[in-house]
Amino acid sequence: MNIRDQYKVAVFTFIICFVGIGIGRYIYGPILPQMIRKHWFSQSDASYINAATFVGSVVGALIFPYIEKYMNNKLNLLLIFAFIASLGVLGCSFNFGFQWQSFSRFITGLMTGALMVGIPSITLPMFDKNKKSFFTCFIFMSIGTSIIIQGILLPVVLPYSILSSWMSIFVICIAAIIICSFLKRNLSVVNVHKFPKKIIKPNDYKKYVTSKLIVFIFLYTLSGIVILPQCVLMNEYVVYSLNYTSFMSNNLWISLGLGIVVLTYTIGKITIKIHTKYLLMLSYILALISLMIFISSDCFNILLISNFLLGGCVGSYTALSMSLLSEFVGRDIYAHIFRFLPCFASIGFAVGLYFIGYFQSLGYDLHTIFIGVAVIAFIEVIFSTLIVIMHKTDIKLIISTS
C-alpha cells in the first residue's frame, strides 16, 4: 500500500476508534451523575449498567473472528461496528428503565469489543514496519481526543437536558462515520487481512500456557479493575463524594484525555530505547501512584495531576501488553490468540463493576471501595515485577543453551 493510502487508513482508523471506543466505552461516565440526579436509576444500578458494557465487550471480542470471515471489505466491517455502537449511544438517551439502559450499553460494549480486536487485526498489517509504531500511537490517541471533546461539549449541553447531551454525542458519531465513508473511497484496499489459515489444534495451545503467560493474563485482567475509579466512576465519585461541581468534574475528565494523548505518544517514542516489559511495569506503578493520589486528596489541582498520570496508563496498557504477548508466545500463535487479550481486561471491568455495585448496595461508599481497588493495584505492581524477573530468566536460559 502506498504511503498516501496508509495515512488515509490511519485517519480512518483514528475516527473509528474515536467513535467506537473513545465515545462508546467512556461516554457514560461524565453523563452518569446527571442521570442519577434525575432519578433514571440509583448509584448501585449505575455500576451494574456499566458492567453490561464490558460483558458486551467480552462477547464482541470473542465473536469477531466468526463475523470477520464473511466480509471481504474489512474496512466496511469496522464502519458497521462503529455505526451500531452509535445506535447504542442513541439508545441511552431514552429513559426506559434499568433494563433498557443495560441493553443499550451491552450493544455498545459488543461493538467496542469487536473493534478492540478488529482494529489491530485489520488495519495494523497495512502499515509499513518502520511506521507501524507511529500509526499505532496515533490511533490510540483518539481515545484521549474523544474524552477531551466530551469534557468540552458536555458542560454546554448537559444544563439543557440529558436527552440533548446524548443526541449531541450521537450527531458527532454520525458525522464522524460519514467522514470515514468519504475517506474510505478510492482506497486501494479490499481484502486487507485474514486470520491465519494455519490450523492450530486445541492441544497445540497447551505448550504456550506457561506460568509467565498465566501471570501476564492475570495482570491484564487486574488492569481493568484498577483503572475503574478514574476512567469509569470518577465523575460519579467527585460529584457525590467530594461535592465537586459538574464543571470541575468535566475538567478532570479533560485532564484524563490529555494524559492519554500526551503520555501515549511519549511512551510510544521511548519504546525504541526501553524494553516493553519495563515500560509495562512502569505503567502499573504509575497507575498505583495515580490511584493513591486520587483517593487520598480532595484538592482539585492534585486530582488533575492524578488523572493526567492515569491517562498514560490507559493509553499504554493495550499497546505494551500486545507487544509483550507476541514475545511470550511467538508471532505465529500470537496471530491466533491476541484477540482474547481484550476479553481479559473487559472481564476485569465487568467483575469489578459488579462487585462495586454489590458493595454500594450494602451501604459502602465509593471512597472505601476505592481503597480496596488500591490494594489490588499494589498486588498488580508485585506481579508486574514478577513478570520482569521471569522474562529475564527466560533470556538467560536461551543464551546458555545457544
The oligomeric state of the chains shown is single chain
Number of helices: 17
Identify the CATH homologous superfamily.
Answer: MFS general substrate transporter like domains
CATH class: Mainly Alpha
- By DSSP, the count of extended strands is 0
Supply the number of structural domains.
Answer: 1
Low-confidence stretches: 190-197, 393-402
What is the C-alpha radius of gyration, as a whole number of Å?
20 Å
Provide the residue-averaged pLDDT: 83
Approximately how much helix is present in the residues? Answer: over 70%
The fraction of residues in strands falls at under 5%
N- and C-termini, Cα separation:
38 Å
CATH topology: Growth Hormone, Chain: A
Main beta sheet strand tally, sense and closure: none
CATH architecture name: Up-down Bundle
N-to-C order of helices and strands: HHHHHHHHHHHHHHHHH
Q: Based on CA inertia axes, which overall geometry fits?
A: globular
Report the structural category: mainly alpha
